[in-house]
Every structure is written in C-alpha cells, then in structure tokens.
Design goal:
single chain, 8 helices, 16 strands, alpha+beta, 6-stranded antiparallel β-sheet
Amino acid sequence: MTREIREIAFLTNPTAGKGRAGRVRDVALPLLHGAGWRVRLLEGRDAAEAADLARKAVVDDVDALVVCGGDGLVHLALQEVAGTDLPLGILPAGTGNDAARSVGIPLRDPAAATARLLAWRPRRIDLARSGDRWFATVLAAGFDAVVNERANRMSWPRGQMRYNLATVAELRTFEPLHYELDLDGEHQQIEATLVAVGNGPSFGGGLRIAEGASLDDGLLEVIVIGPVTKPELVRTYPKLFKGTHVHHPQFSRHRVRRVTVACPGIVGYADGERFGALPLTVECVPGALKVLA
C-alpha cells in the first residue's frame, strides 16, 4: 500500500543556480502544503551548517529529506542518508543537476518535479563509496579534474566562464597521464587523457561520459579515454553531450564492482565536489539510497 508522506525536512541552498533554488522552493511549497504535507524548512548558511541540518533530519521523525539545490547539495545529503531507510527527494535547482537527471526528475519544471515527490514512489538505487564518502554520479580523475582544480584556484570570473578559461589554460600544457588501475583485482598500467568512474551516466551538466551506466546493476563504469591530441580532445568534447564519444577509437570501458585509481598529482572530483587526491578505491554499494523518483 502506498504511504502518504505527512512530514518532510526541506533543505534549500538559496545560492544554487544563481538564486533559482528560492524560486523552485516557492513553487513547490504551496503544492506540498496543498497536499496536506507538513514541511520543516531548513536552510544552511554554509556547507557545514547544511550538513548538520541534514544529519539531524535523518534522526528526526520525518518521512523524507527533500533537497532543493544542485548536485553539491545532493552530494552533501548523500553523506547522511546513504545506507538508511530515509528517502531522499530532489528538487533540481542548480547548474549541473546530474543526480536529478540520472533518475529522471524534470529539471526545468518545478511543479512536475514536485509531483514526483507527491507520487511517493521510492526507488532503491546504487551509490559509489570510497572510504566513508559517497557519490551518486561520476568521479572525474583526468583532464576534467585538472580543470576543476585550476578553476577552484581562480577568484575571477564567476560561473561557467571560469571553467572555460581554466580549460583553455590547461589545454596549453596538458599531456596524457600515467595511471595504475585495479579493476576487480586485475591490475593495469595505462596512459590516458581521462579516467572516470561512473555510478550514473553523466556529470558536468549532462556530459554523458559513462553512457549506458545503470543505477541498479551493482556495477561501476570505469571509463578510459586514451591519449589524444589537443585538437582531437576539443573535437571530442561536444560528443559527450550525446554519448557518441563511445565510438572514439581511444574510448574503452570496464564494468566492475570495485576499482582503485592511482595517478600522481591528481585530485578526484565526485558529483562536482572536490573528493580527494588519488589513489582512491571506489566500490559500488547496491541499493544504498532510497530516492523519490
């Protein structure tokens, strides 16, 4: 029997999507209240406070934690709800929204996204775990991670342009990297432009790097793009939006339950967040998250 939610914790990142989260919240709240739901509004002033609020929601007597923001807020919430029975609802309001995209939540229609919550159809999906940290989408550990590192060191400009400038700057000097991989016990040493570990198919706002990845097969997709020239890298980039890069001769994939990725000097990014320096060991945890989608 379908259970109707009566009380939820509603956590918002008001700065997500250049203020879009506040507008999405304002659409969602009347719909939730109109359905008889009681809503505990939560808003963290920074990541630490938001994490604390999410942590308290897990132990409070609520039926779900709903986050209104981007992949960063989803990533933060995962650290608290993964491995529990508390469902996570997502109202996408960020720039990338790859977590919501991966589970089919409408990205540009707050009313339709709220309707998914009201339908109350929890679904179990896999998560990736490294140590005590979780991620839902993709761990970037190559050229894309190098760009993220440079962009994070830049104070100007803001938004997407900062990443565009960081990409141009890194392209000038970037060379293929030497990786050591352990793929379910099979050891490989390779030269590659990019290595990514996908639980879901996309990152970076719809770049389908792990095209074909399933959220409920108990496996990770380890994506390798071998050495390519700088012009070839630039030409290949647009293909990521459609997933047609999988036909590139330097593309390969491995489906594994556990992988260790090592590469000197590289910091991995997961769900768009700085995750940690390589080497990192990542495993798939089947059914670790209950999501309202």
